[in-house]
Amino acid sequence: MKTYIFLATIIVLLLSGCSTKEVFKPKNVSNDWKKYSYIEDDIVDITSDAALLDNGKVLDKDGNVSKRTQPKGQRVLSESNGWILTAAIDGNLTATSTKTPQLVKHFALKRTIATAGIQDNILAVLFANNEIALYDTDSKELLFKEQGGKALANDIRIVQPYFMNDLVIFSTLDGKIIIVNSKLKKRLRTVIVSSADYFNNIIYFGIMGDKIIAASNSKVLALSQKEVRAKFEVRNMIHDNKYIYITTKQGEVISLTPSLQVNSKVKFPFAHFLGMIQDDKNLYILEKEGYMIVVNKKTFDYTIHEVDFNDGLVFVTDKAFYVGDKKILIQ
Fold this sequence. Notes:
31 strands; 48% strand
């Protein structure tokens, strides 16, 4: 009987804890957000730069929907230099041209793929076991491969390979940046962003002037002649020509200098950020409880607006947030 009472007490405490979970409740809310439209179907799968719709078509970062329906049983990997890449769990990869939809290439890679990218005749693949590889898209020949370290669990925001002339830059599942020369078929450099045990994959990669910037869930890296790292629990990250902008799991919006020094910061207690977009003047941040937070990039003054959307996968482009079949515009 005592055991039963003890267990019942624990259950009540757990339930009461869940019911009193703090959420973001702004005191001052401006006019409702009214900039909406709709897409042709619900989003059922997302990557950092593409989303798969329920009708089999793909939405890209420019907000364009593909003309061709992707094969059933395949998930979206990326939109890369005019190609939509999808793959089945067994490693059958399909590359569909966005300009010429009837142009389709198939690759039987025989292992589950995390992400991939194409430039010219090079297919760069990051496998789910953290192996990286390069293939010739015409001959299907394997040009280069290297096994990475173990990755026990991953954030859904896996970054596709980045191409820079003859260089292919892989953002790995174990928190590294690996630079490979596709002509020499040789790894040139490996840089560690972070070394956490779980959810340590790179979730953001970009080029800022002469710097590589990247982030995992727990650290931000700025790389040029020197490597600079800073600890942040990152939810979202973007940059312009002057600053890096991040949102954190603590409800902060922060601007960082290229050397990762804090320039400006504002905190929204208990906020859970779903995505961030920028224009020349503002940051637009979508919050889970149904708010759009607009932060001025120069002054860090802000306004908060109620936004109408239901729970669902969130895909972020340069000009809109997509949730379900709803498009939430910033302009």
